[in-house]
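User: What would this chain look like folded?
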Amino acid sequence: APRRRGYGVYRGVVPASTPTQAVRGLRTNPWGSRGFWRMGIRGISSGRGSAFSNGIDGIDDNRLGGGGDSTQLVRQNEPPSFPHVVAVPISRRPLFPGTYAPLSVTDPNLASRIIELSEQGTPYVGAFLRKNEPDAEEEKESAGDSRGEEAAGESGDSGGSAETTEKTDAYGGHSGESTYFDQVSSGVGDLSEIHSVGMLAQINRIVRSPLGGGIQVVLYGHRRIEIQGILEDSNPLAVAVTHRTDPTPQDNENTDLLKAYSNEIMGTIKQILQYNPVFKEQLQLFLSTVDISDPAKLADVSAGLTSAQASELQQVIEAFDLEDRMSLALLLLKKELEISKLQQEINRKVEQKVSENHRRFMLQEQLKSIKRELGMEKDDKEALIQKFKNQIEGKDVPPEAEKTIEEEIAKLSTLEQASSEFNVTRNYLDWLTSLPWGIFSKENFDITRAQQVLDRDHYGLEDVKNRILEFIAVGKLLGAVPQGKIVCLVGPPGVGKTSIGKSIADALNREFYRFSVGGLFDVAEIKGHRRTYVGAMPGKLIQCLKKTQTSNPVVMIDEIDKIGQGMRGDPSSALLEVLDPSQNASFVDHYLDIPVDLSRVLFICTANITDTIPGPLADRMEFIRLSGYIMQEKVQIAKSYLAPNALKETGLSEDDIVLEDSSIESLIRWYCREAGVRNLQKHINQIYRKAALNLVRADADADADTDTDTIIDAAAEKKEGAVDADKKQEEGKENKQKKGLGE
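Assistant: Here's the prediction, encoded as structure tokens.
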């Protein structure tokens, strides 16, 4: 065959050692790069620089592959009118004139026939759209084959050019690009499977699939063909066809109508370009290749641009009349235009919503910036730092604590709010600035008032009261409160050890804080946790100072004889520093890690026995023993404290119940003989609750009697009324009878 440049010259098959080698020679073609092929086939290049288009128009063997192993074909200007063609089914979209269709043919007979046609120099087949989609199982099998071929091709060794090219597809890329191919897993078995009107297609490129699983072929559409019959004993199916040439405008009498259709199609395409910028480049590329003066070609290309269904596109293929074809193409373009408008409307709504949120965010940020400039508001970090500075303003902060606070504030100003260290530093500063540095409750040295307060809440307990009065007297003489003392009240349950702590705080005009150490086994409850731990907090003593907001509260450590020991340390040993007047002036909590003065705190401890209190801890405390109450003391406590409290709790009045002294004595002698008064309080409360129940029952019975009397009176009145009515009725009858007799 002649080898020269020029459009419309068929380049024959260059002799090779075997036909297979000639076909496989395509895979060594350096022109088959992924970028060139995709540019040529997907973009449908205009022929002004595209490698694929240049290859079709005619490029010598060196440009195509460099050697005699190329079977690349170029389309002719006017392909022969073959009376018989092999029917190739297409599933996705029908093939239009001037467009390309990549196929993956896995049917062995059809693949062999396509290769044979290419080698014989008649590379033409008939491309017909299937009427029904292929079975799902066939699709799965073909997809699985393509995936298996891709995996096998990628795992193979590139030992030579033939093996290397087996990993490429008809686009010049890897077989993983098979998703762009229309899968042809079987040939045409019967004419009922396909539409009768199809396209004469030229075989432009053939590449064997990896591992011999079929071929990949690119078809180029030329003109319409119509099936007239089938050839017997043909496998794959060959059909007899009639070639349909596109009508020209001169063949149609109504040229103005065709011109109007053409203008409307072009106008609709331009509108689609405005509404759908995604396909703008592709549409402009098609417009540059379409001859507007050819209505038939304009209709075909414009219909092929749309995303219409295959059945709708097939109607355009089957429309031989030019007016009908242009009408169908215009209808598809109008549908595409409406879809583009709807798509733009959806996009506009989404962008509007996003822009509104963005606008709101920007306005809020601008508002914050304006407020900060005017001094009306500060950002979160600045406000937080200012809050810490305000908390320590006016406090007598020790130098060491003040230095630590300044360092932490400077550190906080450099940290990002999203960092974990920011939260740790913020919590630490919150505790440091919340402590009552240099803040003390004003002392009351009035002995008379203190005596009244102590006698108001407790009867007896002279030893305890005298010790508190001595503490106040010494403070009055010194002109200042003496250093914190540690008093331990020892006695049986119910003698008032815990309740007297509140009275002592009231007598001294101090804040009161109580916590129990019974069963405590963690040293961190006393001395706090290290800040390195998650959820770390200071100990109970630092929490006491923050809650009371004073540096000289009355702190009651309850149940100190029941303190425990565990694997986390010995809390009783930790209390040695707290309860030692010579050491607690510089108490260091593990969380704060700075000295805190506890020397002005009055510690009061309670215990039932002293045997379980460790010796070093007991040596730091002053014990005051409360042995219990005698009969007369219990009677006075019951009359002065227990009975009024029970009267208040039950809602009774003094007129409702009277508790005689003899009754109280009998209750104490026979039922409440313990040292304390806790059991006596329970019995008195029970007596008052019984009285409340009897009182409510009596009121309910009185109401019931009243209701009964009311019902009886109402019934009697009703009965009397009925009797009177009967009498009047009888008198009326008698009067009538007398009147009748007189007449």
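Residues 64 and 194 are 35 Å apart (CA to CA). If you want, I can go into more detail on any region.
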